[in-house]
């Protein structure tokens, strides 16, 4: 049961260059799917979108960025209030978009100008009740469905940036798997000198997802692959 209460009013709303500042998230999860024909375990990415009253299209959770919080905090708060989910956010935004509000109920400024920041949020908890539950339903969709049903062009652009980040993570995972295989070929250091090219080792400071068998996972860098069983053969799909 959720005891969260949604914020109301605009008295703490941030503005910049006559734009109302808003912040939101693309909530996502990895759904495990067994491919019997190939004998592989597939992980398909899904994103969470919301309905609005009297509308057939969908949106990602977002709302006003207020003066007592960071953009990331505002994004997580709005996601909790509108979608009723919590999770692990990426600290760097997917990007910034300037757009004009199409709804009289969501005027951003006298001329309707908004400047929005979006973040990726890996969902770890779905609440049974949440503040805006009466006005919104939530739906898990694959990426193709999300593009088809998304209301705003700028949110589609944010989704494109999100997929680029997921693709980079996938490529990094492949590189790490290659490093793991290469390390099995390293000769006994007690009898041989080994030269290691440090430029080929992923840098944990890049805020990418890094897997390690000897250290704990960074709180804001956890990804699906940290939870994969070692016996699984992994094939990642984007549900497209």
UniProtKB/TrEMBL annotation:
Name the domain of life this protein comes from.
Eukaryota
Give compartment(s). Answer: Mitochondrion
Question: Which residue intervals define the domain Nudix hydrolase in the entry?
Answer: 18-163
Task: Quote the Gene3D superfamilies the UniProt record gives.
Answer: Nucleoside Triphosphate Pyrophosphohydrolase (3.90.79.10)
UniProt family annotation: Belongs to the Nudix hydrolase family.
Give the matching InterPro entries: DDP-like_NUDIX, NUDIX_hydrolase-like_dom_sf, NUDIX_hydrolase_CS, NUDIX_hydrolase_dom
- GO CC terms: mitochondrion; nucleus
Give UniProt keywords alphabetically.
Answer: Hydrolase, Magnesium, Metal-binding, Mitochondrion, Transit peptide
Q: What is its main location?
A: mitochondrion
Protein name stated in the entry: Nudix hydrolase domain-containing protein
* GO molecular-function terms, A-Z: metal ion binding; pyrophosphatase activity
Required co-factor(s) are: Mg(2+)
Q: Which SUPFAM superfamilies match?
A: Nudix
Which CDD domains does the protein's record reference? NUDIX_DIPP2_like_Nudt4
Xref: PROSITE patterns: NUDIX, NUDIX_BOX
PANTHER family in the cross-refs: DIPHOSPHOINOSITOL POLYPHOSPHATE PHOSPHOHYDROLASE, NUDIX HYDROLASE 12, MITOCHONDRIAL
